[in-house]
Amino acid sequence: MSQDANCIFCKIVAGQIPSRKVYEDDDIFAFHDIAPWAPVHILLIPKRHIVSMAHVQPEDEALIGRMLGLAPKLALQEGARPYPEGGFRIVTNTGKEGGQEVHHLHFHVMGGPRPWLRG
Ligand code: AMP
Ligand code: ZN
């Protein structure tokens, strides 16, 4: 299954729910979090419906690597300041005890001047 009809992030990828897009290619989509914790707070997701980091298969690893490689570029593009004074956090909540609310894999990429609301 590559998309889940009931998944809010699949609907964002399909354009059925609006988002503030910051990046898109054949496999990856990135957009602003609707409730940001930090001055810069984007969500980086695979277009394909992968449920969580606990569901990543060996064949997904190149995609995950590409997403992590993209994160610093998108953080700077969206206004995070450069390392070392600036920087960013990458957070991936996984499962109930991991605090995951949307069950489509996503990397939170957060940055910008502190204090932050959370994180
Ligand atoms: P998590 O708790 O790690 O599953 O994070 C889910 C994130 O998705 C939260 O930070 C929400 O603010 C964010 N979110 C939920 N719905 C939307 C939406 N329609 N557009 C953008 N971000 C969303
Ligand atoms: Zn999905």
Report on this model:
The protein contains two helices and five strands. With 119 residues, it is an alpha+beta fold. The protein has one domain (8-111): HIT-like (HIT family, subunit A, 2-Layer Sandwich). The protein has a five-stranded antiparallel sheet with strand order 1-2-3-5-4, with helices on one face. The longest helix has 17 residues, at 61-77. The radius of gyration is 14 Å and the shape is globular. The termini are far apart. It binds adenosine monophosphate and zinc ion. Zinc ion is lined by residues 4, 7, 9-10, 49, 104.
Essential attributes:
119 residues; alpha+beta; HIT family, subunit A; 2 helices; 21% strand; binds adenosine monophosphate; binds zinc ion
CATH topology description: HIT family, subunit A
Briefly, what CATH class?
Answer: Alpha Beta
Backbone structural class: alpha+beta
Uncertain stretches:
none
Strand content: 15-25%
Name of the CATH superfamily: HIT-like
- What is the first-to-last residue Cα distance? 33 Å
Mind summarizing the main beta sheet?
A: 5 strands, antiparallel
Shape: globular
Provide mean pLDDT, rounded. Answer: 97
Tally of discrete structural domains: 1
Q: Level of helix content?
A: 10-25%
Oligomeric state of the chains present here: single chain
Give the C-alpha Rg. 14 Å
CATH architecture: 2-Layer Sandwich
Number of DSSP-assigned strands: 5
Q: Order of helices and strands, N to C?
A: HEEEHEE
User: What small ligands are held by the chains?
Assistant: adenosine monophosphate, zinc ion
Number of helices: 2
Provide the spatial order of strands within the biggest beta sheet. 1-2-3-5-4
